[in-house]
Write a structure and sequence with these properties.
Layout lengths: L15 H13 L12 E5 L2 E4 L4 E4 L2 H4 L8 H13 L11 H13 L6 E6 L2 H16 L3 E5 L8 H6 L17 E4 L11 H20 L4 E6 L15 H11 L3 E5 L13 H5 L5 E4 L10 E6 H4 L15 H16 L2 H22 L4 E7 L2 E6 L10 H13 L2 E2 L1 E3 L5 E4 L7 H18 L1
Parallel strand pairs: 3-13, 5-6, 5-7, 7-8, 8-9
Antiparallel strand pairs: 1-2, 2-3, 4-10, 9-10, 11-12, 12-15, 14-15
Helix pairs in contact: 3-11, 4-11, 7-8, 12-14, 13-14
The structure holds pyridoxal-5'-phosphate.
């Protein structure tokens, strides 16, 4: 691998060169664009980021679940280099090319269900979600979209309306798009009636929300992340999603699975829906699909996707050939290296460590959850009240960064640590990262 797979700090973090670049950033880049860790990266591969000061950092974030196959993964680099030399853009809507078609074929093969499918490609996750909503409304002739508490679907105008959390995503950015309705999420750890009652009560609450606030016949689609991402890595109880899917089918409401974060081997299956045997009508993909290049997709039942008039979907750059070549390289890597299996191995390595930490600190680690290489712990002030402890989360995060471990937090209450290592990371680096995390946690108490 082009980058040595070990952690090594040669300066404090961030070091002097990163600090100098950060001064330039502050002077040139909008303050609205934040940075989690102002360490400027020069190279990256496997599970390591190398910064401009020469520090080697362990990567537990994958640039938010994007570099699933690893940074600058060999097949991605090869595909991109070839493609960028052949041609960079024609616009698929003007003069098409094979790479776009090949990515759509792969999406058709790999997404849940063996029915006929069609896909369309876009540039970002938010754009894919917007287009899934367009297709669902067009096909059903209905307006309403049902989303959930803690949902995250993007930052464009429509997707802000679909996203639950005000700060930082929505605050003073309205007015928002209409005909969006929100149901309670099946969140076992915080379900008022307790985790045992969560599946049944959350299903009833969902049905009641649609019935009383929307009317079944007015609902075009239910849009859900099968495991919620930014909202806190919330895993609904087994069977709940399948009941929601079944109920939607009975009422002619489309189920859109937003698998932008969960998709492409991240959770130990190709898609998180696979684990539950759920077959959505439409599925949105992005993040892990193209090894770091911007590419997103909407895939769905052929009769739904083909119901849109010609010219109704598209965009100048959507399905750019270089991004498509990257996706083909990334998908080939996932298949050849069995990255679904690797994600399950990562779960097997991480979970006992996280559970051990929870057993040693039952008062502060409220919940350990997730699937595959998408795992999280939720921190609280005490086990009785379950009050979210955002301050402890921030302190641990700070200490991890200083020790050369890149971690991400999330959650509506800012008290969840999420672990999203690249699936190309080695076991030694993961163990070392977990040692650093535990030390940071125990020192911050
Ligand atoms: C990241 C994300 C999005 C938005 O994707 P962008 O590429 O940032 O627009 C939408 N949905 C989910 C579940 C995500 O994790």
């Amino acid at each position: 691998m082009s980058v040595e797979q070990h952690r090594q700090l040669v300066t404090e973090v961030p070091g002097p060169r990163s600090r100098a670049l950060h001064e330039r950033k502050v002077a040139a880049v909008s303050a609205g664009v934040g940075t989690t860790l102002p360490v400027y990266v020069e190279r990256a591969a496997g599970g390591v980021l190398v910064d401009v000061d020469g520090n080697h950092l362990i990567d537990f974030g994958s640039g938010i679940a994007v570099t699933t196959v690893g940074n600058a993964a060999p097949r991605v680099v090869e595909g991109v280099q070839q493609q960028v030399a052949d041609f960079t853009h024609t616009c698929f809507m003007v003069t098409p090319y094979e790479e776009y078609v090949s990515v759509c074929e792969k999406l058709g093969e790999l997404t849940p269900g063996d029915h006929q499918k069609r896909s369309a490609l876009f540039n970002s996750g938010a754009e894919a979600v917007e287009n899934a909503v367009k297709v669902a409304r067009h096909h059903t002739g209905r307006d309403a979209i049902v989303v959930f508490d803690h949902a995250y679907h993007g930052r464009t105008n429509l997707t802000m309306a679909l996203t639950a959390k005000n700060m930082p995503y929505k605050h003073r950015f309205g007015p928002f798009a209409g005909e969006v309705y929100r149901a309670p999420m099946a969140y076992p750890y915080r379900w008022p009636g307790g985790a045992e009652a969560c599946a049944d009560e959350a299903f009833e609450a969902f049905v009641s929300t649609v019935h009383t606030q929307v009317g079944e016949d007015n609902a075009a689609a239910v849009l859900i992340e099968p495991i919620q991402g930014e909202g806190g890595f919330i895993v609904p109880p087994p069977g709940w999603l399948a009941r929601v899917a079944e109920w939607c089918r009975e009422h002619g409401i489309l189920l859109i699975a937003d698998e932008i974060q969960t998709g492409f081997a991240r959770t130990g299956d190709w898609f998180a829906c696979d684990h539950e045997g759920v077959v959505p009508d439409l599925i949105t993909t992005a993040k892990g699909m193209a090894g770091g290049l911007p590419l997103a997709g909407v895939t769905g039942r052929a009769e739904i996707m083909d119901s849109v008039h010609t010219g109704g979907l598209g965009g100048t750059y959507g399905g750019n050939p270089v991004a498509c070549a990257a996706a083909l390289g990334a998908i080939e890597t996932m298949q050849a290296d069995d990255l679904c299996g690797r994600a399950r191995e990562i779960e097997a390595l991480f979970l006992p460590r996280l559970r051990g930490l929870a057993e040693r600190h039952p008062d502060r680690v409220g919940d350990v959850r997730g699937r595959g290489a998408m795992l999280a712990i939720e921190l609280v002030t005490d086990a009785g009240s379950r009050t979210p402890d955002a301050a402890l989360t921030a302190a641990v995060h700070q200490a991890c960064s200083a020790s050369g471990l890149v971690t991400l937090t999330c959650g509506t209450f800012g008290n969840v640590f999420r672990f999203l290592p690249p699936l190309s990371i080695g076991d030694d680096l993961m163990e070392e990262g977990l040692d650093l995390f535990e030390a940071a946690f125990e020192n911050a108490l």
